[in-house]
Amino acid sequence: MLYSATENGFYPEEFKTSYVTAGNWPNDLIEITPDEWETFQSLPPEGHELGSDPEGRPKWVPLPPENLRDLAERKRRELDAARDAAFAAGLEYDFNGEIDVVQTRPEDQINLLGLSAQAQRLIAAGQPDSTLTFRGLKNVNRELTATEIDSLTLAALGHIEDIYQHSWELKDMLQAALLDGDREKIEQLFW
């Protein structure tokens, strides 16, 4: 088996004619040992890729660092995923001594806003003790007064706002680190 450092690839000698005819036969080919061939047929060690040493022999070399823009984009996706996980985790809420989770995913936020509007209309109409049905993560129907729904939705919407605020702060830090070219600060950003 032959190896080309410039092409960073292996070439079987028996196919030389085909490569030459196609104009793809490198001029820096060297013969490698059977042990080298066996080594480089396997997956590289973590954090490495195929490269060559100064003599042009195949070698596992460290992967180059991710470019800053790609690193920042990957970190932004990680932060978005963590934000979405925080929404999915919801808000633990005490329903008269029983803890349940108020779900706060984007689709739940619509329901919370609707319940909040209904509760506020009932309160404004002088009917704060009128009941509305609420169902948390435990899938139990709870009949809550308009006042209780108003308190619950304010707590849940505050929880959602806190998650967004935290997300925005981290993204602002990410953008500042990117503009400063500060790889270390970008790598150290976590939810």
Termini gap? 49 Å
Q: Provide the gyration radius in Å.
A: 30 Å
Residues in helix, %: 40-55%
Structural class: alpha+beta
Task: Please describe what this structure looks like.
By secondary structure, the protein is α+β, with helices and mostly antiparallel strands. It folds into 2 domains: about 1-60, no CATH class; about 70-185, no CATH class. The protein has helices spanning about 15-20, 35-40, 70-90, 105-125, 145-180, 185, and strands spanning about 1-5, 10, 30, 50, 60, 90-95, 100, 130-135, 140-145. The strands form 4 sheets. It has a 3-stranded antiparallel beta sheet with strand order 2-1-3, with no helix packed on it. The protein has a two-stranded antiparallel sheet with strand order 4-5. It has a two-stranded antiparallel ribbon with strand order 6-7. The longest helix has about 35 residues, at about 145-180.
Characteristics:
single chain; 6 helices; alpha+beta; 2 domains; two-stranded antiparallel ribbon; 191 residues; three-stranded antiparallel sheet
Explain briefly what this protein structure is.
Helices cover 50% and strands 20% of the residues. It has helices at 16-22, 34-41, 68-89, 106-124, 146-180, 183-187, and strands at 2-4, 9-11, 30-31, 48-52, 58-62, 91-95, 98-102, 131-135, 141-145. The strands form 4 sheets. Strands 2-1-3 form a 3-stranded antiparallel sheet, with no helix packed on it. The protein has a two-stranded antiparallel ribbon with strand order 4-5. Strands 6-7 form a two-stranded antiparallel ribbon.
